[in-house]
Amino acid sequence: MQHNHNGIFDLVATGKLSLLEELWKGKDVNAINSSQETLLHIAAQHDQVAVMKFLISKGAKLDIRDSQGRTALHRAAEMGNTSATKVLLQNGADIYALDKYSDMPLDLAVQNIHQSTELLHVGAHINAVDQKGLTPLHVASQQGHPDIVSLLIRREADISAKDKQARTALHWAAAQPQATVARLLLSTGADANAVDKEKKTPLHFAAMGGHGEVASVLLARKASFRAKDMDGCTPLHYAAAKGHLDVAAVLLSTGKKSVNDKNVWHTPLHCATRFGHLESVQRLLSWTGGTGANLRAKNNVDKTPNLFSVLSNDKNNKNP
User: Fold this and answer.
1) Distance (Å, rounded) from C-alpha 311 to C-alpha 179?
2) CB-side exposure of 222: number of CA atoms within 13 Å?
3) Which terminal residue of the chain has fewer beta carbons within 10 Å of its beta carbon, N or C?
4) In 3D, which of 92, 91, 98, 89 has the Cα closest to residue 65?
């Protein structure tokens, strides 16, 4: 129940325990503010351990949710407040509580670059998943936190774990410009050619995002430059379709036979012309590492690449 206890909330936030005890008579320990936060939420957020112990002794409920579906443990973990986290866990706070965004306390700690050793010591499942199937390692890899990734791997996080789209932590690192994390995952055994539900590898994601350094890291670890997804697209198809010249250059320097590979519809040159990427067209045609792109190659409807369409900059086509 919401009450006008702003003064009490201020005392909790600033850790004024003596004054809080003096004024406590008749107060509701589980009162909430306008954000549906309890006094315990506020104390945990500000790492006011003595106040937290007082509130718990007065019957504070540990797992009340605020407007974001977060418990006091979420708040402590989010702020990296180790002492507050320890108090809550010692008193039975739910370590696997999910907020409205499907984040557990450990997820918030990872997102905010807090090492969360207390959560791990007390027993947070290192491979626990949220509603999207993401583990803490997926989250840390996506956000580019190598220290957290290292910690999780040392605690035996599953580097091969897949989310609901069958994507590994390496897929997530490759989808972002997270070359350092990609190197770390690969050095500890991550599969450079793991495929998701659409048969996309991490290299496909690096190509789609235009992440040349990540592509280089993956190729150095034997990622297949000719891997095809469910539509028959190689990474070069995506690099060409999106005009990512740096990725195309990396792929062309490695994939000596991939320049004319055809997906369900097109070659990379078809893709570059359809999406109006003149520089990509020039790169494909002038490539000197082998036979250049074939101007006479036909797509699924027997059409050759139309160089005039480059000028139309037609980006309404869905598929590369």
Assistant:
1) 34
2) 6
3) N
4) 98
Give the residue among 105, 131, 129 at the shortest CA–CA distance from 119.
Answer: 105
pLDDT in tens, 108-143: 887 776 655 556 655 557 788 887 898 989 988 998
Secondary structure in 3-state letters for 118-150: HHHHHCCCCCCCCCCCCCHHHHHHHHCCHHHHH
Q: At how many degrees (to 10) do helices 278-286 and 235-242 cross? A: 130
CATH of the domain at 307: 1.25.40.20
Which of 210, 205, 139 shows the shortest CA–CA distance to 175? Answer: 205
- How many residues can be counted in the chain? 320
263 falls within a domain: yes
Structure tokens at 270: 């078809």
- The neighbour count for residue 222, using CB atoms within 10 Å, is 9
Domain tally, the chain: 1
Kindly provide the b/e burial profile for residues 239-251, where b requires at least 16 CB atoms within 10 angstroms of the residue's own CB.
Answer: bbbbbbbebbbbb
Q: Is the pTM of this model over 0.70?
A: no
The C-alpha atoms of residue 246 and residue 155 are separated, in whole angstroms, by: 36
* pLDDT at residue 229 tops 70: yes
Residue 35 lies in a domain: no
180 found inside a domain: no
Phi, psi of 244 (to 5 degrees): -90, 90
Element (H, E) at 283: helix 278-286
Give me the helices (H) in 91-135, please. Answer: 105-111, 117-122
List pLDDT tens digits, range 235-284: 988 888 787 878 888 887 775 556 666 555 666 665 566 655 556 655 66
DSSP state, residue 226: T
The sign of the dihedral angle between the CA atoms of 306, 309, 310, 315 is: negative
